[in-house]
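Hello forum,

I keep getting stuck at the same step: I have a sequence, I want structure tokens, and every attempt I make locally crashes halfway through. Rather than fight my setup again tonight, could one of you with a working pipeline run this one for me? It's a single chain of 213 residues.
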Amino acid sequence: MTDGVNPQMIPETVDGGEECKFQRPRALFRDPPCALPEVCGDEGTCVPAPINQDVGTVEVIGFKVPLSMESNGNNSYLNPPGLPHPEFETGASIRLKASGDTYPSFSLQGWGIEPFETMIDKPVVEENKPLEISWKPPLEELPTRIRINLNVNNHGTSSGWINCVVPDTGSFAIPAELISKLVDNGVPGFPSIIFHVKPRILSKLDRAVSRCL
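Reply #2:
Ran it on my machine without issues. Output:
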């Protein structure tokens, strides 16, 4: 957990709607350059670089094996080796609890998701055509969504990608207009399509619910 967000990690949304967006890295620049440990911010400013913070003992409840972690010297947390895979049963109630240190104690709650399996082998990306994507829908009705990241420009640093967050229904079509923008942005090679299953997460501080995602 850091005490801020690096502005360079926040992409620029060029086009798209609520479910799908065409995004690219922001070109943040300052002359003279920012001196470490600062980083470039908006409008040529320099802002402090985010720093990892100690949040105390972190426990995960709901895994097949109890998990407890302490902060290392860099204020980051690593799970011990040897955890089973998957670490949880489908539908399991999973809770992360941090005892607190620099920040007050907090907890996160989620659910065990089913193994994810796509129904496509080698998707073909064509300009002016939507990209039809399918996967096995969940057997149990869980509060999950699917994040789809499509990139056809992974050579060095990526100059643009499509990012979608959609209902976990088993199929979705990335709009043709966004596909065209992605192709027009350049296709030097190393294409990829990455899926993330996103359970609905509840975040609760000691005194109040801070947000629902």
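The two ends are 18 Å apart (CA to CA). If your local run keeps crashing, start a new thread with the error log.
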